[in-house]
Amino acid sequence: MKVALDISPLKSGHQFRGIGAYTKNLFESLQAIKRADFEVVSVESGEIPKDCDLVHYPYFDLFFKTLPLIRKRKTVVTIHDTTPLVFPEHYPPGIKGRLKFEAQKMTLKTVSRVITDSQNSKKDIAHYLGYPQKKIEVVYLAASKIFQPIKEKNKLERVSKKYQLPLKFVLYVGDVNYNKNVLGLVKACKAMKLPLVIVGKQAVQKKFDQTNIENQSLVQLIKQYGQDKEVIRVGYVPDEDLVVLYNLATVYCQPSFYEGFGLPVIQAMACGTPVVTSKEASLPEISGQAAVLIDPYDINDITNGLSVAIEDEDLREQLIKRGLNQAKKFSWEKVANETYKVYQKVVKRK
Fold it and tell me: CATH homologous superfamily for 2-142+331-348?
């Protein structure tokens, strides 16, 4: 079985985002599968070798044409989430976007299998895209092996000094889109007089369309807290520094209204950092019993969740221990093996 994996996300703006990380880690992990009957090759759109049995597109844009209408080989597509369809008022596609959505939706019906990140996303893909649930395979993501507890004081001190971090802080990693609820987290941290460190390229962007409705959360963050020394926006951080940031954080918080998976939650747990996260969408599924769950629509509940995770020493110890165990349930070796099983199903099916 020869599989062509489309690595186009590594050549686009997705390179430093979740889709890029997924594509890179998936390709490397699939290459590590040593089987005489299996080979994976990287391709870019339109360059599919003739001897391939299957093509895997590791991304699917709802409002742009990312899936070829005419395909000569069996196809697997990864759809990470349906966020814009869950919150259409915050992610309006426009007339062209709606037309492209219908085209993408129609093309999707001809795909052999869809892979997604969680049972919650599987449910939503079936609901919003009309794709058969029986053909949707859940393959959970994983944190890279670099994410682990760090004991070396020199490394901790170097990174803390590099980013001028306070002794105690709440950490958030990700974009500043509506569904991420970053403004809610800022309000909770301000109520507790706790510094918030925000990691992510988007948070420090200066040139962006401030009239675009999708950017309004970022506009408000900069307008209200752009000069606030207790809201520290550090921008993009390479993984070797990010793992140290997780280790330095007093608590990690993912207060999202919606996630397809919620990878930073697992990254934080793998580093031994207590986690507070939303009880919405995929996040309870991913965090299990290893996090404090909060109502993201209630600032007081976010505040209370952060408070107990920081101040209750017994709970902190439990969260750290459970988090480390929860993170071990996810690995890129497992992602690769389960993805390989999906390929087998597709290729064997006549």
Answer: Glycogen Phosphorylase B; (3.40.50.2000)
In terms of Cβ atoms closer than 10 Å to its own Cβ (0-12, 13-18, 19+), residue 313 is: exposed
**Residue 162 contacts residue 241 (beta carbons within 8 Å):** yes
Q: Which of 145, 21, 56, 127 is nearest to 346 (CA)?
A: 56
Q: Return the number of other C-beta atoms located less than 10 Å from residue 160's C-beta.
A: 17
What is the CATH architecture of 153-327?
A: 3-Layer(aba) Sandwich (3.40)
pLDDT tens-place values along the chain, 350 residues long: 999 999 988 876 666 567 888 999 999 999 999 999 999 999 986 678 889 999 999 999 999 988 887 788 899 999 999 999 999 999 999 999 999 999 999 999 999 999 999 999 999 999 999 999 999 999 999 999 999 999 999 999 999 999 999 999 999 999 999 999 999 999 999 999 999 999 999 999 888 888 889 999 999 999 999 999 999 999 999 999 999 999 999 999 999 999 999 999 999 999 999 999 999 999 999 999 999 999 999 999 999 999 999 999 999 999 999 999 999 999 999 999 999 999 999 998 75
∠ CA 91-225-273, nearest 5°, is: 80
The gap from C-alpha 72 to its chain's centroid, in whole angstroms, comes to 31
Q: Which residue carries 């007081």 as its tokens?
A: 300
Residue type, 187: K
Beta bridge partners of 238: none
